Protein backbone atom coordinates (compact mmCIF):
# COMPACT_ATOMS: atom_id res chain seq x y z
CA UNK A 1 0.00 0.00 0.00
CA UNK A 2 2.75 2.46 0.88
CA UNK A 3 4.89 2.73 -2.20
CA UNK A 4 7.92 4.76 -1.18
CA UNK A 5 9.99 3.13 -3.85
CA UNK A 6 11.30 4.89 -6.96
CA UNK A 7 10.37 3.62 -10.43
CA UNK A 8 8.32 0.47 -10.96
CA UNK A 9 10.16 -2.77 -11.59
CA UNK A 10 9.65 -4.32 -15.03
CA UNK A 11 7.11 -6.82 -13.64
CA UNK A 12 5.16 -4.12 -11.82
CA UNK A 13 5.18 -1.88 -14.90
CA UNK A 14 3.66 -4.70 -16.98
CA UNK A 15 1.10 -5.44 -14.29
CA UNK A 16 0.14 -1.77 -13.92
CA UNK A 17 -0.16 -1.36 -17.69
CA UNK A 18 -2.24 -4.48 -18.19
CA UNK A 19 -4.52 -3.65 -15.22
CA UNK A 20 -5.14 -0.17 -16.66
CA UNK A 21 -5.57 -1.21 -20.31
CA UNK A 22 -7.79 -4.15 -19.40
CA UNK A 23 -9.80 -2.10 -16.89
CA UNK A 24 -10.38 0.78 -19.32
CA UNK A 25 -11.59 -1.70 -21.95
CA UNK A 26 -14.58 -2.80 -19.84
CA UNK A 27 -18.10 -1.38 -20.18
CA UNK A 28 -17.78 0.08 -16.65
CA UNK A 29 -14.20 1.32 -16.78
CA UNK A 30 -12.29 0.37 -13.66
CA UNK A 31 -8.73 0.44 -12.27
CA UNK A 32 -7.78 -1.62 -9.18
CA UNK A 33 -7.33 0.60 -6.12
CA UNK A 34 -3.85 -0.72 -5.32
CA UNK A 35 -2.47 1.60 -8.04
CA UNK A 36 -3.61 4.68 -6.09
CA UNK A 37 -0.56 4.27 -3.85
CA UNK A 38 2.53 5.58 -5.59
CA UNK A 39 4.72 7.86 -3.47
CA UNK A 40 2.44 10.89 -3.95
CA UNK A 41 -0.70 8.76 -3.44
CA UNK A 42 0.70 7.33 -0.19
CA UNK A 43 1.50 10.85 1.06
CA UNK A 44 -2.01 12.01 0.15
CA UNK A 45 -3.54 9.02 1.91
CA UNK A 46 -1.57 9.85 5.08
CA UNK A 47 -2.96 13.39 4.78
CA UNK A 48 -6.51 11.98 4.41
CA UNK A 49 -6.12 10.03 7.68
CA UNK A 50 -5.53 13.34 9.51
CA UNK A 51 -8.58 15.13 8.02
CA UNK A 52 -11.51 16.16 10.19
CA UNK A 53 -13.94 14.68 7.62
CA UNK A 54 -12.18 11.29 7.49
CA UNK A 55 -13.24 9.76 10.81
CA UNK A 56 -12.07 6.08 10.51
CA UNK A 57 -8.44 6.57 11.62
CA UNK A 58 -9.39 8.74 14.60
CA UNK A 59 -12.21 6.42 15.67
CA UNK A 60 -10.09 3.27 15.40
CA UNK A 61 -7.17 4.83 17.28
CA UNK A 62 -9.54 5.92 20.06
CA UNK A 63 -10.91 2.35 20.34
CA UNK A 64 -7.43 0.80 20.49
CA UNK A 65 -6.40 3.33 23.15
CA UNK A 66 -9.54 2.79 25.24
CA UNK A 67 -9.36 -1.01 25.00
CA UNK A 68 -5.72 -1.61 25.89
CA UNK A 69 -6.55 -3.77 28.96
CA UNK A 70 -9.05 -5.86 26.98
CA UNK A 71 -6.57 -6.27 24.13
CA UNK A 72 -3.98 -7.54 26.58
CA UNK A 73 -6.40 -10.00 28.08
CA UNK A 74 -7.60 -11.18 24.70
CA UNK A 75 -4.08 -11.79 23.30
CA UNK A 76 -2.70 -13.43 26.45
CA UNK A 77 0.94 -13.41 27.58
CA UNK A 78 3.93 -13.33 25.19
CA UNK A 79 2.08 -13.03 21.85
CA UNK A 80 3.52 -12.48 18.39
CA UNK A 81 1.84 -9.71 16.42
CA UNK A 82 1.50 -10.22 12.66
CA UNK A 83 0.48 -7.01 10.91
CA UNK A 84 -0.95 -7.14 7.38
CA UNK A 85 -0.02 -3.96 5.52
CA UNK A 86 2.49 -2.32 7.86
CA UNK A 87 0.86 0.84 9.18
CA UNK A 88 2.27 4.28 9.91
CA UNK A 89 3.12 3.12 13.41
CA UNK A 90 0.68 4.78 15.82
CA UNK A 91 -1.81 1.92 15.88
CA UNK A 92 0.92 -0.71 15.88
CA UNK A 93 2.60 0.97 18.84
CA UNK A 94 -0.71 1.20 20.67
CA UNK A 95 -1.34 -2.52 20.24
CA UNK A 96 2.22 -3.62 21.02
CA UNK A 97 2.11 -1.39 24.10
CA UNK A 98 -1.14 -3.06 25.22
CA UNK A 99 0.21 -6.59 24.95
CA UNK A 100 1.82 -8.38 27.87
CA UNK A 101 5.50 -8.87 26.95
CA UNK A 102 5.04 -9.33 23.22
CA UNK A 103 7.66 -11.70 21.85
CA UNK A 104 7.53 -10.96 18.16
CA UNK A 105 6.35 -8.60 15.46
CA UNK A 106 5.97 -9.54 11.79
CA UNK A 107 5.02 -6.57 9.57
CA UNK A 108 3.93 -7.48 6.02
CA UNK A 109 3.97 -4.96 3.17
CA UNK A 110 5.03 -4.64 -0.46
CA UNK A 111 6.87 -1.36 0.05
CA UNK A 112 10.46 -2.22 0.93
CA UNK A 113 11.56 1.11 2.45
CA UNK A 114 8.37 1.58 4.38
CA UNK A 115 8.52 -1.92 5.77
CA UNK A 116 12.10 -1.51 6.98
CA UNK A 117 11.33 1.85 8.56
CA UNK A 118 8.41 0.35 10.50
CA UNK A 119 10.44 -2.70 11.52
CA UNK A 120 13.34 -0.57 12.79
CA UNK A 121 11.07 1.78 14.68
CA UNK A 122 9.43 -1.13 16.53
CA UNK A 123 12.82 -2.74 17.25
CA UNK A 124 14.03 0.50 18.81
CA UNK A 125 10.82 1.10 20.72
CA UNK A 126 10.39 -2.47 22.06
CA UNK A 127 13.90 -3.65 22.84
CA UNK A 128 13.59 -7.42 23.26
CA UNK A 129 11.09 -7.87 20.41
CA UNK A 130 11.86 -10.43 17.65
CA UNK A 131 11.08 -8.51 14.44
CA UNK A 132 10.94 -10.05 10.94
CA UNK A 133 9.55 -7.92 8.10
CA UNK A 134 7.95 -9.86 5.25
CA UNK A 135 8.02 -8.09 1.87
CA UNK A 136 4.86 -9.44 0.29
CA UNK A 137 1.49 -8.31 -0.95
CA UNK A 138 -0.76 -9.50 1.89
CA UNK A 139 -3.28 -10.77 -0.67
CA UNK A 140 -0.78 -13.19 -2.22
CA UNK A 141 -0.25 -16.70 -0.85
CA UNK A 142 2.80 -16.80 1.43
CA UNK A 143 4.17 -18.47 4.55
CA UNK A 144 5.25 -17.04 7.89
CA UNK A 145 9.02 -16.62 8.36
CA UNK A 146 10.93 -19.51 9.86
CA UNK A 147 12.33 -19.32 13.39
CA UNK A 148 9.36 -17.51 14.90
CA UNK A 149 9.42 -17.64 18.69
CA UNK A 150 6.84 -19.80 20.43
CA UNK A 151 3.74 -17.91 21.53
CA UNK A 152 0.22 -17.14 20.49
CA UNK A 153 0.11 -15.57 17.05
CA UNK A 154 -2.21 -12.59 16.69
CA UNK A 155 -3.06 -11.25 13.24
CA UNK A 156 -3.63 -7.48 13.06
CA UNK A 157 -5.46 -5.92 10.10
CA UNK A 158 -6.38 -2.34 10.98
CA UNK A 159 -7.67 0.67 9.04
CA UNK A 160 -10.71 -1.02 7.49
CA UNK A 161 -8.47 -2.10 4.65
CA UNK A 162 -10.69 -5.18 4.59
CA UNK A 163 -13.34 -2.83 3.17
CA UNK A 164 -11.28 -2.39 0.01
CA UNK A 165 -11.55 -6.14 -0.70
CA UNK A 166 -14.59 -7.71 -2.35
CA UNK A 167 -16.42 -10.54 -0.55
CA UNK A 168 -14.33 -13.35 -2.10
CA UNK A 169 -11.04 -11.52 -1.48
CA UNK A 170 -12.00 -10.69 2.11
CA UNK A 171 -12.85 -14.33 2.80
CA UNK A 172 -9.61 -15.54 1.19
CA UNK A 173 -7.65 -13.00 3.21
CA UNK A 174 -9.26 -14.03 6.52
CA UNK A 175 -8.72 -17.73 5.70
CA UNK A 176 -5.05 -17.17 5.02
CA UNK A 177 -4.69 -15.18 8.24
CA UNK A 178 -6.21 -18.13 10.12
CA UNK A 179 -3.69 -20.46 8.49
CA UNK A 180 -0.87 -18.10 9.53
CA UNK A 181 -1.89 -17.87 13.19
CA UNK A 182 -3.03 -21.50 13.57
CA UNK A 183 -5.77 -22.99 15.78
CA UNK A 184 -4.33 -21.36 18.93
CA UNK A 185 -4.13 -17.95 17.31
CA UNK A 186 -6.32 -14.86 17.25
CA UNK A 187 -6.94 -11.73 15.19
CA UNK A 188 -7.76 -8.07 15.62
CA UNK A 189 -9.48 -6.48 12.62
CA UNK A 190 -10.56 -2.84 12.21
CA UNK A 191 -13.81 -2.43 10.28
CA UNK A 192 -15.71 0.70 9.24
CA UNK A 193 -19.44 0.52 9.98
CA UNK A 194 -22.49 1.30 7.87
CA UNK A 195 -23.85 4.70 8.84
CA UNK A 196 -25.61 7.79 7.49
CA UNK A 197 -24.72 8.17 3.83
CA UNK A 198 -24.00 11.87 4.36
CA UNK A 199 -21.25 11.11 6.91
CA UNK A 200 -19.77 8.46 4.63
CA UNK A 201 -19.72 10.69 1.58
CA UNK A 202 -18.11 13.55 3.49
CA UNK A 203 -15.29 11.19 4.50
CA UNK A 204 -14.67 10.28 0.85
CA UNK A 205 -15.22 13.74 -0.64
CA UNK A 206 -13.66 15.94 2.01
CA UNK A 207 -14.07 19.70 2.14
CA UNK A 208 -10.34 20.29 1.63
CA UNK A 209 -10.30 18.30 -1.60
CA UNK A 210 -7.48 15.97 -0.50
CA UNK A 211 -9.41 12.83 -1.49
CA UNK A 212 -10.09 14.40 -4.89
CA UNK A 213 -6.33 14.93 -5.33
CA UNK A 214 -5.69 11.36 -4.17
CA UNK A 215 -8.08 9.99 -6.78
CA UNK A 216 -6.93 12.25 -9.64
CA UNK A 217 -3.30 11.40 -8.85
CA UNK A 218 -4.01 8.02 -10.44
CA UNK A 219 -4.34 9.73 -13.84
CA UNK A 220 -1.13 11.69 -13.21
CA UNK A 221 0.58 8.39 -12.40
CA UNK A 222 -0.72 6.78 -15.60
CA UNK A 223 0.57 9.76 -17.60
CA UNK A 224 3.99 9.66 -15.95
CA UNK A 225 4.60 5.92 -15.71
CA UNK A 226 2.69 4.54 -18.69
CA UNK A 227 3.04 7.45 -21.12
CA UNK A 228 -0.63 8.46 -20.93
CA UNK A 229 -2.09 11.79 -22.03
CA UNK A 230 -5.05 12.16 -19.66
CA UNK A 231 -6.19 15.75 -19.12
CA UNK A 232 -6.64 15.93 -15.36
CA UNK A 233 -8.82 19.05 -15.68
CA UNK A 234 -11.25 17.04 -17.84
CA UNK A 235 -12.05 14.64 -14.99
CA UNK A 236 -13.59 15.17 -11.57
CA UNK A 237 -13.49 13.13 -8.36
CA UNK A 238 -16.81 11.52 -7.48
CA UNK A 239 -17.75 9.61 -4.31
CA UNK A 240 -21.03 7.72 -4.28
CA UNK A 241 -22.85 5.22 -2.12
CA UNK A 242 -23.61 1.82 -3.65
CA UNK A 243 -26.49 0.52 -1.56
CA UNK A 244 -26.48 -3.02 -2.97
CA UNK A 245 -22.78 -3.50 -2.18
CA UNK A 246 -22.90 -1.36 0.98
CA UNK A 247 -19.84 0.47 -0.26
CA UNK A 248 -18.63 4.00 -0.85
CA UNK A 249 -17.22 4.05 -4.37
CA UNK A 250 -14.66 6.46 -5.75
CA UNK A 251 -14.92 7.27 -9.44
CA UNK A 252 -13.24 9.64 -11.89
CA UNK A 253 -15.99 11.36 -13.84
CA UNK A 254 -15.37 12.48 -17.41
CA UNK A 255 -16.51 16.11 -17.75
CA UNK A 256 -16.72 15.98 -21.52
CA UNK A 257 -16.68 13.63 -24.54
CA UNK A 258 -12.99 12.91 -24.96
CA UNK A 259 -10.29 10.43 -25.91
CA UNK A 260 -7.17 9.53 -23.92
CA UNK A 261 -4.18 7.42 -24.99
CA UNK A 262 -1.77 5.15 -23.24
CA UNK A 263 1.02 4.50 -25.72
CA UNK A 264 -0.69 3.14 -28.83
CA UNK A 265 -3.99 2.38 -27.07
CA UNK A 266 -6.82 4.93 -27.29
CA UNK A 267 -9.82 5.04 -24.99
CA UNK A 268 -13.03 6.92 -25.52
CA UNK A 269 -14.90 8.62 -22.68
CA UNK A 270 -18.41 9.97 -22.92
CA UNK A 271 -19.39 13.02 -20.88
CA UNK A 272 -20.64 11.68 -17.53
CA UNK A 273 -18.93 8.30 -17.91
CA UNK A 274 -16.76 7.19 -15.00
CA UNK A 275 -13.70 5.13 -14.11
CA UNK A 276 -14.36 3.19 -10.90
CA UNK A 277 -11.17 3.45 -8.81
CA UNK A 278 -12.08 2.10 -5.34
CA UNK A 279 -14.80 0.48 -3.28
CA UNK A 280 -14.78 0.89 0.46
CA UNK A 281 -17.24 -1.61 1.89
CA UNK A 282 -18.97 -0.92 5.17
CA UNK A 283 -20.20 -3.62 7.54
CA UNK A 284 -22.41 -4.09 10.53
CA UNK A 285 -21.66 -6.57 13.28
CA UNK A 286 -23.81 -9.33 11.76
CA UNK A 287 -22.45 -8.89 8.26
CA UNK A 288 -18.85 -8.94 9.38
CA UNK A 289 -19.51 -11.83 11.76
CA UNK A 290 -20.97 -13.88 8.88
CA UNK A 291 -17.96 -13.11 6.67
CA UNK A 292 -15.57 -14.05 9.48
CA UNK A 293 -17.44 -17.33 10.04
CA UNK A 294 -17.19 -18.29 6.39
CA UNK A 295 -13.43 -17.99 6.82
CA UNK A 296 -13.32 -20.09 10.02
CA UNK A 297 -13.43 -17.35 12.67
CA UNK A 298 -15.89 -16.32 15.36
CA UNK A 299 -16.30 -12.86 16.87
CA UNK A 300 -15.07 -12.87 20.49
CA UNK A 301 -15.42 -9.15 21.07
CA UNK A 302 -16.65 -6.15 19.09
CA UNK A 303 -15.41 -2.80 20.40
CA UNK A 304 -16.97 0.39 19.05
CA UNK A 305 -16.14 4.07 19.58
CA UNK A 306 -18.54 6.44 21.40
CA UNK A 307 -20.22 7.52 18.18
CA UNK A 308 -20.46 3.93 16.89
CA UNK A 309 -18.68 4.85 13.69
CA UNK A 310 -16.07 2.09 13.67
CA UNK A 311 -15.57 -1.35 15.18
CA UNK A 312 -12.49 -3.30 16.21
CA UNK A 313 -13.28 -7.03 16.10
CA UNK A 314 -11.38 -9.54 18.21
CA UNK A 315 -11.60 -12.89 16.40
CA UNK A 316 -10.89 -16.42 17.58
CA UNK A 317 -10.69 -19.56 15.44
CA UNK A 318 -14.07 -21.32 15.21
CA UNK A 319 -12.31 -24.63 15.76
CA UNK A 320 -10.24 -23.37 18.68
CA UNK A 321 -8.39 -26.10 20.53
CA UNK A 322 -10.00 -26.71 23.91
CA UNK A 323 -7.78 -25.60 26.83
CA UNK A 324 -5.50 -28.37 28.05
C1 LIG B 1 -6.97 2.31 2.78
N1 LIG B 1 -8.43 2.35 2.83
C2 LIG B 1 -8.93 1.63 3.98
C3 LIG B 1 -9.01 3.70 2.69
C4 LIG B 1 -10.56 3.61 2.74
O1 LIG B 1 -11.14 4.30 3.57
O2 LIG B 1 -11.13 2.83 1.99
C5 LIG B 1 -8.58 4.36 1.39
C6 LIG B 1 -9.26 5.68 1.13
N2 LIG B 1 -9.85 6.01 0.01
C7 LIG B 1 -10.33 7.23 0.10
N3 LIG B 1 -10.08 7.69 1.30
C8 LIG B 1 -9.40 6.73 1.96
TrEMBL record:
Residues 16-315 form the Histidine-specific methyltransferase SAM-dependent domain. Signal peptide: none annotated. Its EC number is 2.1.1.44. One of its GO terms (biological process) is methylation. SUPFAM superfamilies: S-adenosyl-L-methionine-dependent methyltransferases. Gene3D superfamilies: Vaccinia Virus protein VP39. Keywords: Methyltransferase, Transferase. The keyword DNA-binding does not apply. Pfam families: Methyltransf_33 (PF10017). GO terms for molecular function: L-histidine N(alpha)-methyltransferase activity. NCBIfam families: egtD_ergothio. This is L-histidine N(Alpha)-methyltransferase.
Amino acid sequence: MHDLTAPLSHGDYNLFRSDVVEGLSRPQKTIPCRWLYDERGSDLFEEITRLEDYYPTRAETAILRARQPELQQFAGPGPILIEYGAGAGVKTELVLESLAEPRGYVPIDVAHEYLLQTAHRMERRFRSLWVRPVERDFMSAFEMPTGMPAGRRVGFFPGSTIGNLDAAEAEAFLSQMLRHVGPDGAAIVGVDLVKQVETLLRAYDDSKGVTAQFNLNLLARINRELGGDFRLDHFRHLAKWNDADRAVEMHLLSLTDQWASIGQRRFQFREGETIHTESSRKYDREGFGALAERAGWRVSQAWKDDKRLFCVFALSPLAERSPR
